[in-house]
Design a protein that fits this description.
Layout: H1 3-14, H2 22-49, H3 63-66, H4 78-94, H5 104-112, H6 123-134, H7 141-159, H8 171-181, E1 189-191, H9 198-208, H10 214-221, E2 224-228, H11 231-243, E3 251-253, E4 270-275, H12 285-288, H13 300-310, E5 312-323, H14 324-328, H15 332-344, E6 346-352, E7 366-372, E8 379-384, H16 406-412, E9 418-420, E10 423-430, H17 431-436, H18 456-485
Helix pairs in contact: 1-6, 1-7, 2-6, 2-11, 4-6, 8-9, 13-15
Length: about 500
């Protein structure tokens, strides 16, 4: 099965439809159709193993009963197909009744279609798209596994259309972080801004080799938990987990920041948290009230950092990606967050990533923080991962790969301080030294900024990122002034 060929066939068909505007909408159209196809395949397996299985989808609206073209001239097409999807299928799926007793495997159908739409206006072209998707046999394990590569490409293509401060995490980064944190079967693994499910699927791939029995498979099926605020990534994540044989993908469509962090109890905590939280965004004041005064920030990533600290179990482990701004940020909230992190958690490692890891989506420099809840920090190791030889930048066609992490993987279990010229590439700092630096974690950084020549569109993205960041900093200063003046408006 050709990854490029499958996507190109679908895109070529939809480019002739006047209702679909751009690649982003084309991907959205593909995704809800894929979800129904994948879900129907899962239902076939559930029916095989359970004679009493009943679908949550009314019979007429199951993929097998309207989408499959049996070549008998009876398949819906043209206006009849459009009318069926817009007036019957979507209302039926959006209005599925669920309650607290509805299994996750069934309730996800309603949640998946809460904010989904049919963009296509040509019913003949829509029939062609449905037929292409129906060619894939998701009941076949090998074909389903092969399709994961296609799905990965769909996620990348979708991300290329987005400019919301949320970036597709390269598979190399999620796999590397997962390998370093080493989740184990029986542990609960979470991502509170899971996007399309990259960290969750990396965790599942890591856990797969640990499955040796029926009991292990049950642990595997219940190992991951996610929350995603936006509708389309939520649907993508659900489909992603179904493709990874998770029958009950526990991914909530909601905002992780909406609950008061002081209300979390032990049942809300996790053994492992893996994240690339959104950054550069800003939350409304009512959201900030969910955090203690000293931890309130205008930066979304800071708020997620606090959520992580409140939702980590004793001896739990964390691996997450954060921008440079968190490391050197000196405003009151960032300083308080870092102080809490060092006093209550063991921040044992920070990996400085080379520039353009997230190219072409953003130029923001990023870092990977590893910490656990085994006790306060005594020392923190820093390691600078340099750009691989022969690379000036990573790009869409030459992305970062797991092999590029080999130097830090080799260093990880045999840590030594490394100096290159007058610059530290790897060094251990005591917590006393970090406190003396006023919690500035911008250590073992890159010795020089290479000149990077960018396309005009990329330069505009950088400009918007910097303008957004400046606006956030201004809002934060104004908020602090209002607080000092006692203005609660």
């Amino acid at each position: 099965m050709s990854t490029r060929g499958f996507i190109k066939r679908l895109q070529d068909i939809m480019r002739n439809d006047s209702g679909v505007n751009g690649d982003a909408q084309r991907i959205e159209q593909i995704v809800w159709l894929l979800f129904l196809k994948v879900y129907d395949a899962k239902e076939e397996l559930w029916e095989f193993h359970n004679d009493e299985f009943q679908s949550v989808i009314p019979e007429d609206y199951r993929w097998r009963n309207w989408a499959v073209d049996k070549k008998d001239g009876e398949a819906k097409t043209g206006e009849s197909l459009l009318k069926f999807i817009n007036e019957d299928l979507f209302p039926a799926l959006k209005n599925i009744e669920v309650d607290e007793y509805t299994p996750v495997s069934k309730s996800i159908v309603k949640f998946a279609f809460e904010d989904s739409y049919n963009f296509m206006k040509d019913g003949v072209l829509l029939r062609q798209v449905v037929n292409v998707i129906d060619e894939i046999d998701f009941t076949d394990h090998k074909e389903r596994h092969d399709f994961n590569d296609i799905y990965e490409q769909i996620l990348k293509d979708l991300q290329a259309q987005r400019s919301s401060g949320e970036y597709y995490s390269p598979r190399a980064t999620t796999d590397f972080i997962t390998q370093m944190v080493k989740p184990q079967l029986g542990e609960k693994i979470a991502d509170f801004a899971c996007g399309t499910g990259g960290f969750l699927t990396s965790s599942l791939n890591y856990l797969e080799s640990q499955v040796k029995s029926v009991e292990d498979r049950e642990k595997y099926n219940n190992s991951v938990f996610g929350i995603e605020k936006k509708a389309l990534p939520h649907l993508l994540a659900l489909t992603n987990l179904l493709l990874h044989d998770i029958d009950n993908p526990y991914i909530i469509h909601g905002n992780s920041l909406e609950k008061n962090v002081r209300d979390y109890t032990e049942k809300d905590r996790f053994d492992v948290i893996l994240m690339n939280p959104p950054y550069g965004g800003s939350e409304k004041d009512s959201i900030k009230m969910n955090f203690p005064m000293e931890l309130r920030s205008s930066e979304t990533a800071d708020l997620f950092m606090s959520v992580i600290m409140y939702r980590l179990k004793k001896n739990g482990r964390v691996g997450l990606i954060l921008p440079d701004g968190f490391l050197f940020g000196a405003d009151n909230a960032k300083r308080a967050i870092k102080e809490k992190l060092l006093k209550e958690f063991n921040l044992h490692t920070i990996i400085r990533l080379p520039h353009s890891v997230f190219a072409p989506y953003t130029s923001i420099r990023t870092n990977i923080l590893f910490f656990d809840k085994s006790g306060p920090t005594k020392e923190t190791w820093f390691y600078r991962l340099d750009m691989p030889e022969g690379y000036k930048n990573f790009s869409k066609t030459r992305p970062i790969t797991l092999d590029h992490f080999n130097p830090v993987i080799e260093w990880w279990n045999n840590r030594t301080e490394i100096k290159e010229g007058s610059f530290d590439k790897s060094r251990k700092y005591t917590v006393e030294e970090i406190v003396a630096f006023d919690y500035n974690l911008d250590l073992c950084g890159f010795p020089q900024q290479e000149e990077v020549i960018l396309e005009p569109d990329d330069l505009m993205k950088i400009y918007h990122e910097r303008r957004t960041k400046l606006n956030i900093e201004i809002d934060e200063v104004l908020f602090e002034i209002h607080e000092m003046l006692g203005d609660k408006s």
